[in-house]
Write a structure and sequence with these properties.
single chain; 441 residues; Rossmann fold; Phosphatase 2c, domain 1; 2 domains; five-stranded parallel β-sheet; disordered N terminus; Fused response regulator/phosphatase; Bact_Sigma-Reg; CheY-like_superfamily; phosphoprotein; Sig_transdc_resp-reg_receiver
């Protein structure tokens, strides 16, 4: 069924056999991109000549005798391709083309102007109006078929691209929903990881402990913590699991359980005594035990660095073992800073590794900072690392700043040094401060 217009502009319809008997060999396979063609010409004879060839090739044809009538048809049943005469009374073909291009469509419509014009300037004006191709009148059927085939290829590519864009848009929508879901999960995971360091500041009377944990992403591989050994002794630890993200965060959560402050019976740093009380293992032995656990019970390619300290709050004696973690910084009451430690291998690399212990004696007014490499390996814009010397300068600058205020100021100093507060690595620290002796009276 096709639609035509009478000489008065009325739409008329008539049937078309898309595959007439006896002409099957002359008809191409029904095109996918071009099915409906609009023929616009004020000459009824010209329309019939064009329609005859187009019907024989299997296209659905609509005819219009003016630009105004053609626009109405385009509004009702948008054609895939338009063949329009250039010179028509009233609205010219080039004017109709311009109006056609302004119409909203789901797909692109191909437009061929029929003209006897050959002047380059005229042709250019037709292209500017939105025409895709030109045919010289009288129209040669072979050339017409070739131009329609060219239009078919262009429309096919356009529609394939549209389908792919729709698929991409749909996929992006699904990915966006998935990202939002993952982002919400990561936000919750960050809250859970931060809750592992729920008590950021503790006052033990003679000393204070402050803790900082700042991940470079939602979650990270750093962890700091403390646990009670006795009324006058505490354990401190700083952990940095290799890598970043979810797998590293899961590993820190598991390690937090091995050094639990709430369940001493699960803490590998503690042992139950015959009387039911708990006593500490030496820090070196504890790290060795973690190394064996890590290698024998965990199927992972991660490893981690660790600094474990046994602090006697009554005497200021600190026994530590270092497993690849940065050298802790000791700041004396007079402001001087020194890096202490003996290095050591990270945990989870070599079976049977041993970890050496060392001691530090803290006096009133002294403090000890255990920190991750996110502090000392913080890089300036020129690539220079802060290093131990840079941390010493910061601690000297912050000599009069105590507890959590000191750790918060450390973050500001790192941001000032790097030129950005979005650090490339997780930043964590635990600060032990022995309170100065206040003069009596």
């Amino acid at each position: 069924m096709t639609f035509g217009l009478s000489s008065k502009g009325n739409i008329v319809s008539h049937s078309i056999d898309l595959a007439p008997a006896g002409e099957a060999s002359d008809a191409p396979t029904a095109p996918r991109a071009i099915r409906h063609i609009l023929v616009v010409d004020d000459s009824r004879l010209q329309r019939r000549i064009l329609a005859a060839s187009l019907k024989k090739w299997g296209f659905a044809i609509t005819e219009a005798d003016s630009g105004e009538a053609a626009l109405e048809i385009c509004r009702q049943t948008p054609p895939d391709l338009v063949l329009s005469d250039w010179m028509m009374p009233g609205m010219s073909g080039i004017e109709f083309c311009g109006r056609f291009r302004q119409m909203a469509r789901e797909n692109y419509g191909y437009f061929i102007l029929l003209t006897s014009k050959s002047d380059k300037a005229e042709i250019a004006s037709g292209l500017d109006a939105g025409a895709d191709d030109f045919l010289t009148k009288p129209v040669n059927p072979g050339e017409l078929r070739a131009r329609i085939a060219a239009g078919e290829r262009i429309l096919q590519m356009e529609r394939e691209l549209t389908q792919k864009n729709q698929l991409v848009s749909s996929t992006l929508g699904e990915l966006r929903a998935l990202y939002d879901s993952l982002d919400n999960d990561l936000i919750e995971a960050k809250k859970l990881q931060q809750s592992l360091v729920s008590d950021r500041h503790r006052d033990y009377g003679t000393a204070e402990v402050s803790m900082l944990l700042r991940s470079s992403g939602h979650v990270g591989g750093d962890l700091v913590g403390t646990y009670a050994i006795s009324d006058t002794r505490i354990g401190l630890y700083g952990i940095d699991v290799s890598g970043h993200g979810i797998s590293s965060a899961l590993m820190t959560a598991r390690l937090a359980g091995y050094l639990s402050g709430a369940a001493p019976e699960q803490n590998v740093a503690m042992r139950r005594m015959p009387d039911g009380t708990f006593a500490p293992h030496p820090p070196g032995q504890t790290i060795a035990a973690l190394n064996n656990l890590f290698l024998n019970e965990m199927e992972t390619e991660h490893y981690f660095t660790l600094l474990l300290a046994d602090v006697d709050l009554a005497t200021g004696r600190v026994v530590m073992a270092q497993a690849g973690h940065p050298y802790p910084a000791v700041q004396r009451a007079d402001g001087t800073v020194e890096a202490v430690g003996c290095g050591g291998l990270p945990v989870g690399l070599i079976p049977g590794a041993e970890f050496q212990e060392f001691e530090v004696q803290l006096a009133p007014g002294d403090r000890l900072m255990i920190h991750s490499d996110g502090v000392t390996e913080c890089a300036a814009q020129d690539g220079t690392l802060l290093d131990d010397d840079g941390l010493g300068r910061i601690l000297r600058d912050l000599r009069g700043v105590r507890a959590m205020a000191c750790l918060e100021s450390l973050i500001w100093k790192l941001a000032e040094f790097s030129g950005d507060d979005n650090f490339a690595d997780d930043v964590s620290a635990i600060l032990l401060e022995i309170k100065p002796i206040r003069p009596s009276g």
